Amino acid sequence: MIKLEEKDSDYIEGEESLNEKAIQNIKANYPNISIKFSRDNYSLYELKRKLNENKFIVIDPEFQRENVWSHKQNAELVESIMMGIPIPIIYLFEDEKGIRQVVDGRQRLACITNFMDNKFKLVDLSILGEYNGYYFKDLPAVLQSKIEDYQVIVYTVQHPTPEKVKFDIFDRVNRGGHNSITKK
Question: Is residue 98 part of a domain?
Answer without folding.
Answer: yes
